[in-house]
Write a structure and sequence with these properties.
With 241 residues, the chain is of the alpha/beta class. It has 2 domains: 87 residues, Ribosomal protein L30/S12 (60s Ribosomal Protein L30, Chain: A, 2-Layer Sandwich), CATH 3.30.1330; 141 residues, SPOUT methyltransferase, trefoil knot domain (Alpha/beta knot). Helix content is 33%, strand content 22%.
């Protein structure tokens, strides 16, 4: 049974770097905390190393490395001390045979992105596309908000023009959420193959995205003109599901 007690251990030094995006990208690894998320990572066969706090029972059917409290604290993002942490391999999903997809253009809040991924998975969408300038999928807040949905739903980062080509190749109708010159959601005809585009929290979709759309839609509402992007996404996804 391996037990690590030194903060200077080479594995600990590498693991601790995974709190920064540049090292996640370099090593193609990321940190998952909390029992539920680790269980989802196990289902997806993405775990590279399971780390357990010394003195705590390993409740997972996998080999693990035990670490002292100081090491666990160094690796933890949570304020409270974790009993378990998993070092996971980045998911290499492919998006094929798309019927319903979500496109997020420059959506930068990790909580919004994670919530949209979780909602898309719950409503049976086939994939979520992130433009290159959207937030990092493996940010701790994105992972937490997604509740592990990204382990099972393809989430693919690419340039907007490549994403548009991909969904068009699959015969998807492009629907843009936009306040100007738009149909109300209830007036939009439902279709079996579509890609819903949602934009930046403050600026909305770019002109390029709007011009590429087959239809622009907006949600009927009173008092305010717009909703949080994750809430708007949920309403639109439910309408078309």
């Amino acid at each position: 049974m391996e037990i690590i007690t030194s903060l200077e251990n080479s594995k600990v030094k590498q693991w601790s770097k995974l709190n920064l995006k540049k090292y996640r990208d370099r090593y193609q690894l990321f940190i998952v905390q909390e029992k539920h998320l680790i269980e989802e990572a196990i289902k997806a066969d993405c775990i590279d190393t399971l780390i357990v706090l010394e003195g705590i029972e390993n409740i997972f059917e996998r080999d693990c490395i035990y670490v002292c409290a100081a090491v666990m604290r160094k690796l933890s993002v949570n304020v409270s001390l974790n009993n378990y942490i998993a070092i996971c391999r980045m998911v290499d999903h492919k998006a094929e045979n798309l019927s319903k997809a979500i496109i997020l253009e420059k959506v930068q809040d990790p909580g919004n992105v994670g919530t949209i991924i979780r909602t898309a998975y719950c409503f049976g969408y086939d994939a979520v596309f992130l433009t290159a300038d959207s937030c990092d999928l493996y940010n701790e807040k994105t992972i937490q908000a997604s509740q592990g949905a990204f382990f099972h739903l393809p989430v693919i980062r690419d340039q907007l023009e490549n994403i548009i080509c991909k969904v068009r190749e699959n015969g998807c109708r492009l629907i843009a959420t936009d306040l100007d010159n738009s149909n109300f959601l209830k007036e939009s005809k439902k279709t079996d193959k579509l890609a819903i585009m949602l934009g930046n929290e403050g600026q909305g979709l770019s002109k390029q995205a709007i011009q590429a759309a087959d239809e622009r839609i907006k949600i009927e509402m009173n008092n305010f003109e717009s909703l949080n992007v994750a809430i708007a996404a949920a309403i639109v996804m439910y309408y078309y599901k």
